[in-house]
Design goal:
The structure is a single chain. By secondary structure, this protein is α/β, with parallel strands linked by helices. It has two domains: about 30-135 and about 230-340, Glycoside hydrolase/deacetylase (TIM Barrel), CATH 3.20.20; about 140-220, no CATH class. It has 13 helices and eight strands. It has helices at about 60-70, 80-85, 105-120, 130, 140-165, 175-185, 190-200, 205-220, 220-225, 235-240, 260-280, 295-305, 335-340; strands at about 35-40, 75, 95-100, 120-125, 245-250, 285, 310, 330. The strands form two sheets. Strands 1, 2, 3, 4, 5 and 8 form a six-stranded parallel β-sheet that branches. Strands 6-7 form a two-stranded parallel ribbon. α5 (about 140-165) crosses α7 (about 190-200) and α6 crosses α7. The protein is globular and about 60 Å long.
Amino acid sequence: MDSDGLKRDGAGTDSPANVDRSAIAVSPQSDDTQILAVMYHYISEPDRALSRGVQALSVDGFRAQLDDLCRHMEPIDWPSFYGWTQGRVDLPKRCFLLTFDDGLLSHGRIVLPVLEALGLRGVFFVPTSVLTHEHMLLAHAIHLLLSRLGDKGLCEALLAALHAHDASVDWPSTMDTNAAMELYHYESRDRAKLKYFLNITLPISIRQSMVQSLFEQHVGSIKRWSRTWYLGWEDLVAMQALGHSIGGHGDSHEPITCLTTAQGRADIRQTACVLNDGLGPDIRPFSYPFGRYDEATMSSCREAGFAACFTTEPHRIRCDTDTRRLPRVDTMNVTAVLEKDFACQPH
């Protein structure tokens, strides 16, 4: 049993098939509870070869941030959070939940030992296609291409490939600067446009084959890189056995809203099936890839059995927060939240 009284093997009355998820809002029992869900991606030691394209939080920076969070708030885990949403668990008035996106190998090799040393538990959101076949997710392939070619080099290589594909299209004119800066607000204008164009604007059938070709040409073997980039089943089984939670992050890691409704539903269902087959049934959360979702996406997640869904919207979770669109604050903004919203002074 965990702190919320759930059997973590999925057995009993609170198995995924039997949980009542009809209520949308979080339980009103703790009106003054505020939860800071923190979102992490890359955490690693400095690597000059990857620094141009991979924006990583240093290990020392990660430890310092955890120290600040623990000094000012109480840590919670996913079972406690879920129990709170169901009205069965009381949480501290000020607490935080650690979440990690993308199923990166560094989460097992670097993050896990840090959390274990501090007695903390995390929620690890995994894109399941990397568990079923060796490949690089598009977003990470782009990061590695940027590391190798830089913004200008990748843009030139991309436009040359696009011109060869269809010279009649004015590809640069299709880049949406405003939308790009909204999603990639932490990037330079040119890089934001390039990443948005590759990840969102360019049709999926074109961008997948094009990025794969550029990757093989400029970076190396996709299969070889994938083996050093992502967590495997042994890692996930071990992490779950230690009390960490594994959630879904899509199967393909494509923005679900860029897929048709049927494709999005199938992608989310596949995510749930792969995790349940590999780790056993459990009450799991979902993290929307790229933070993009709509009503159909939320419905598909519920149909697939995911108990709650996390976004990239930078707010705190309160008692009236919709559990289908739970906000998270990116690691780069945590200090500002501690200073402003919680009137704390991180060191």
